[in-house]
From TrEMBL:
Name the record gives this protein: Energy-coupling factor transport system ATP-binding protein
Disordered: annotated span: 1-59
Pfam families linked to this entry: ABC_tran
Residue ranges, compositional bias (Basic and acidic residues): 1-20, 28-37
Family annotation (InterPro entries): AAA+_ATPase, ABC_transporter-like_ATP-bd, ABC_transporter-like_CS, ABC_transpr_CbiO/EcfA_su, ECF_ABC_transporter_ATP-bd, P-loop_NTPase
Record keyword Transport present: yes
Residue ranges of domain ABC transporter in the record: 70-308, 330-578
Lineage: Bacteria, Bacillati, Actinomycetota, Actinomycetes, Streptosporangiales
Family membership: Belongs to the ABC transporter superfamily.
GO molecular-function term, one example from the UniProt record: ATP binding
Key words of the record: ATP-binding, Nucleotide-binding, Transport
Cellular component GO terms, alphabetical: ATP-binding cassette (ABC) transporter complex
Length: 578
């Protein structure tokens, strides 16, 4: 795309007629480069590509009414390199305009099904593997409808394709040959609808995870698709942002009658948006199907036992071992951090994303960083983990952590040798894929302890223990990038715990409970509570109110790059679900 053009739609430079796979906005490349000069689009070189016309439902004033029809018969999918099927024997019909909530335990194949409906599975698509049975959207193979289906996936990093916010939202509209005069009004409207207040020129690299998710949602909603697929669309959003997106999705479904298929673990927040619930069985087909009331009334107890988030049956926090809070291990003092350069800025240096932040991580204490998207939580976590240096201020080890590091303990944390830092500070990134370095789950867990000099036998013992503890034994031989979102998160926690000869003294986690069902949520909290009881310091950025209530000892509230409140908390206990 011509990055200098802000008053007209721009072209991304690909002018052949092969499919362009931008997850969430699967579109076809424009056929004629002269569109970059603002001319009317020419016709497609092949019939059916749709590059020379405005597809139904893509104009600003001609939004399509009526949704797509979905039909699956005996459908199954097995990822490449796996022995087990992700889904098999799925029989399902979704009528136009229906709003369906797709449920199932972590790893049940919910995201796989959404990708298949978006046409992103198959030999020429993002996910390859073995397919059986029949899957049709409006009577066509899903791959034939790429560009008329909107998908918002779990990870916004994989869906942003341009350097600036406005260009990113315009990408799908341009590739669908929306008339030039309509593109920018639709871009502005979509950004406003999702509460993205930065405007078109904001650098996508300068956005927080939650802000990126809002931008991806804007890019998808701008297409006004007849089939809208949402895979945990609010998982990275703060509560106000999540509520805004839910309201927007509800209004879109009402006004366009689009068919909606939604995956969301926190069912209570979205059950009012849907008129039907479909529950998937891991490795199988449809376990339950009906209205929300009927499904939860007839199957609520059984679904809760399988890990499904059933309203009124939230998981109880596991009993926590006694904790013995001690002295500080890491302290951040007066930390400022300058953000990434913004190509949309007219002049001046990048803005500060941290402004004089202070934080202390203490032995036997769970510290939660909370606040709206863009508040600086992930940036502060990165400094506390020693993975980056503040522009001003200091992050240093304290107490027994500084003593254990010897001479290096007197340096700022970011200047520690990499192997020493990895042995004492474990990190779980917001985007799990950022820390995967091998081609199988088992090798991922072997990597850290073997590099730390642990023997082969002890390494295998530890790996087997973590695989079992975090429910990853069944996927030990598969590629980490093919895991579900919840499985990736658990693997990233496991890799942080296996990085040295023993568990790290400090564990830093960004949204640790993302994508978890009730069973894995409770098991993860139990694991973290055990580390806290051993005197480890646990720090986490989270929007998970349940985690905050059950596990946090200290809350650091952030807004606008500043720490606005630091307060002790008393974790609460709840009765187990009945």
């Amino acid at each position: 795309m011509d990055e200098r053009a802000h008053d007209r739609p721009a072209v991304d430079g690909r002018v052949d007629d092969r499919p362009v796979h931008a997850p969430g906005r699967t579109v076809r490349a424009p056929d004629r480069p002269e569109r970059a000069r603002g001319r009317p689009p020419g016709g497609s070189r092949r019939a059916g590509h749709g590059a020379g016309r405005v597809p139904e439902g893509c104009g600003v004033t001609a939004t399509a009414r009526g949704g797509a029809r979905i039909e699956l018969s005996g459908w199954g999918w097995r990822h490449s390199g796996r022995a087990e099927w992700a889904l098999r024997g799925v029989d399902l019909v979704v009528e136009p305009g229906e709003r369906v909530l797709l449920l199932g335990a972590s790893g049940a194949g919910k995201s796989t099904l959404l990708h298949a409906l978006a046409g992103l599975t198959g030999p020429d698509a993002a996910l390859t593997g073995d397919e059986e049975g029949r899957l049709r959207v409006d009577g066509e193979p899903a791959a034939a409808r790429r560009g008329r289906t909107g998908l918002v996936g779990q990870d916004p990093e994989t869906q942003l394709v341009m350097a600036r916010a406005g260009d990113d939202v315009a990408f799908g509209l341009e590739n669908l040959a929306v008339p030039p005069g309509e593109i920018w009004p639709r871009v502005d409207a979509a950004l406003a609808e999702v509460g993205f207040g930065y405007g078109r020129l904001r650098s996508t690299a300068a956005l927080s995870g939650g802000e990126k998710q809002r931008l991806v949602i804007a890019g998808t909603l701008a297409l006004r698709p007849r089939l809208l697929l949402l895979d945990e669309p609010t998982a990275n959003l703060d509560p106000p942002g999540a509520a805004l997106v839910r309201e927007l999705v509800a209004e879109l479904a009402r006004s366009t009658e689009a068919t909606l298929v939604l995956v969301e673990h926190r069912v209570a927040d979205v059950v009012g948006l849907v008129d039907r619930v479909v529950v998937l069985e891991p490795g199988g087909g449809v376990l339950a199907d009906g209205s929300p009331g009927a499904v939860f009334s007839a199957h609520g107890a059984g679904l809760a036992a399988r890990g499904v988030w059933v309203p009124g049956r939230e998981p109880a926090a596991p009993p926590s071992p006694p904790r013995a809070p001690g002295g500080p291990l890491v302290a951040a003092s007066g930390c400022w951090k300058r953000g990434a350069p913004d190509p949309g800025a007219l002049a001046g240096p990048p803005a500060d994303v941290l402004r004089g932040a202070d934080a202390v991580l203490a032995e036997g204490t769970a510290t939660a960083l909370t606040g709206p998207n863009g508040a600086g939580k992930s940036t502060l976590l990165t400094l506390l983990a020693g993975l980056d240096r503040p522009t001003r201020g200091e992050v240093a080890a304290r107490g027994r952590l500084a003593e254990a590091a010897g001479k290096a303990g007197r340096r700022p944390l970011a200047r520690w040798p990499a192997r020493l830092l990895a042995a004492h500070v474990g990190t779980v990134f917001q985007h799990a894929e950022d820390q995967f370095v091998t081609s199988t789950v088992r090798d991922e867990l072997r990597f850290g302890p073997l590099r730390a000099g642990l023997g082969a036998a002890e390494t295998e013992r530890r790996v087997d223990e973590l695989l079992q503890r975090l429910r990853l034994t069944g996927v030990a031989g598969v590629h980490p990038f093919t895991l579900s979102g919840g499985e990736k998160r658990r693997l990233s926690v496991a890799t942080a715990l296996s990085s040295g000869e023993r568990s790290p003294d400090v564990l830093v986690l960004d949204e640790p409970t993302f994508g978890q069902d009730t069973r894995t949520w409770a098991e993860l909290v139990e694991l973290l509570a055990g580390l806290r009881a051993q005197g480890r310091a646990v720090a986490m950025a989270t929007h998970d109110e349940l985690l905050l209530a059950h596990f946090a000892d200290v809350e650091i509230r952030m807004d606008g790059g500043r720490v606005v409140r630091t307060a002790e908390r008393t974790p609460t206990a709840t009765e187990p679900p009945r």
